[in-house]
Each structure stands twice: as C-alpha cells, then as structure tokens.
Amino acid sequence: MTEEKGTQELMKFLASPEAGKTWAGLGGYLTPNKNVPPDSYADPIAKQLIQQLQAAGDAARYDMSDLTPAAFGATPGDGMWEALRQFVQKPTDVEGTQEKLEAAAAEAYGK
Asked: What range defines the domain where residue 70 resides?
C-alpha cells in the first residue's frame, strides 16, 4: 500500500459512520455524517442537537469555519473571513491571499 493509498483509506475511515459513532460516544463532537444515529451520542444535549440538525436535512450547512478557532474562521471582518472577502474583490491576488490566510491562522492557533 502506498502512502497516498494509506492516506485515502484513513480519510475514508474517518468519514465513515463507524468513526463518527466512536467520536459521538466520546462527547464534544457533532458529526455532519447523517448515517451516525442520534443514539450514538452519550450526552443528551448533543443527542438533541444532532436530532435537530438531521431533521433540518439539506437546510443545515457546514463549512471550514466550523472547524477553526473563532478568531480565524468565525469573525466577520477578521481572519479567514476578511482575507477571503478581499480575495473575492481582487481574485488575481492569490499569493497575497495565501499570505494573509497563513498569518491569520498562525495568530489564531497561537503559532
């Protein structure tokens, strides 16, 4: 198995309901995987939240900012939001946008 193949297999597993059930049972996690049943969640609040998200169907949306610190991905006018907003206004500045994203991520993650 090549390294690339191994990486693909790991990613496939991490996206599986089996992995999602394990994480759900540990707490502090809501999976976007609709094949993980609410009964997999040990925490009653998480169970209620995932039931509501699953009932929302396609109306619920996830994006990269859901997995990042608020200072990087969830603060309008700052971090990723601002760098990508500026990129939409000036899409030719790929390198500048990359630099802004890296700097904002380093600050938000404390690196």
From this structure: 64-108
